Amino acid sequence: MRRPQAPAGRRPGAPAAAVSAKRTALARHYQAVRERSLALAAPLSSEDCQAQSMPDASPVKWHLAHVTWFFETFLLEPFEPGFQPFHPAYRVLYNSYYNGVGEQFTRHQRGLVTRPDLEGVKSWRAQVDERMLRLIAETDCEDALRRIELGLHHEQQHQELLLTDLKHLLSINPLQPAYLPAWPLARVSAVPARWVENEGGLVDIGHAGGGFAFDNETPRHRQWLAPYALMNRPVTHGEWLEFVHDGGYTDPHWWLSSGWDWVRSQRIEAPLYWTLPSDTGEPVRVFTLHGAVPLDPHTPVTHISYFEADAYARWASVTRAEWAGARLPLEGEWEASAASLPLQGNFQESDALHPMPARSDTPGLLQMLGDVWEWTASSYSAYPGFAPAEGAVGEYNGKFMVNQYVLRGGSCATPASHIRASYRNFFPTDARWQFTGLRLARSE
Questions:
Q1: Tally of domains in the chain
Q2: What is the mean pLDDT of residues 266-288?
Q3: Phi and psi based region of residue 81 (left: phi greater than 0; alpha: psi -120 to 50; beta: remaining)
Q4: 181: confidence class by pLDDT, cuts 50, 70, 90
Q5: Which string of DSSP letters, residue by residue, matches 280-315?
Q6: Is residue 136 domain-shared with residue 264, that is, in the same domain?
């Protein structure tokens, strides 16, 4: 006798208890992520949440609205019986870049959208949350469940963007206001820099399954790596200060041609948020989410562009004998080295919101995950056999695979549950408002 087929997208024969437990866990995860976004915005005024400091950044209010738009557009609209939008205009107003969904409001003018106000956005969030929790409790459609998980990781991405965009906004205020007033950093000496060798060989790269991954982490495939070594920790603020004092930003020898054009046209003298003293006896000051503080030389350097990371590696390779041959790592080298490592760095949950020194001087690689996103020498492109998902959701990553470089490892603003060794972040060569840093590599 032929067994009846389950409706498309449903799991035949799944035990009721297992389905119920999965729904309960998903509902709890959904509530935790959504509440975390509101908690990040809680210390802010409505004025803080409204303003937009540059085209690459978005207002806090927009982030809170856009992630809600994602759930309404990609979950409630296709899967909720009798769907009705909270407000039809929000479909355009809070669409970021999904051309398959329709028109988008002008990106660089998001800060001009004063209506709905912050409370109006929160009301929309609450209504969508109520409907989403009902959907989670009732659906057994696998496509819906996968999209919910995607939506939650999408929101965690925007939690990090919320913090980095806010940091840029606060930094341009002459008052240099703090998001969190208490400075968490205890003066700890940096772990000595050491090379950690890897014999290379044929390695598997990409997500291995068994949990969530974005489409750009797949398919898993094999790469051949020549023998290489990675630095045991990221480059520190103090080591970067040597580059500044040695005229690193005034010598074209270290820079790619387009990087040197960028340095001159933008008058770049140091990483973003540094204030160089007019008197050499004064300390460099750095703006943080805790306000402006003296530069701590032992913490990983951050807010640098790909251009700066590449220039530093060239400079270090020539000027520091112990770092001869230094370069940026390939993303395959980075992932192969990080694949079996635990979460060692600090993440968003620590509320430090600033890269910290390595916690221990143990052998091997430190801080591969957390603290700062690490630039690689790999351009952002598709893995062999990559195919984006069908429909508008397929626009999530694939269409950005041009003119960008890959970063790995997460940062102090990344939720710990959001990162993994196969995660591929990507930004243009001049972007530096994210918590971006570097770890040196060399060929053996």
A1: 2
A2: 92
A3: beta
A4: confident
A5: TTSPPEEEEBTEEEE--TTSBP-S--HHHHHHHHHH
A6: no
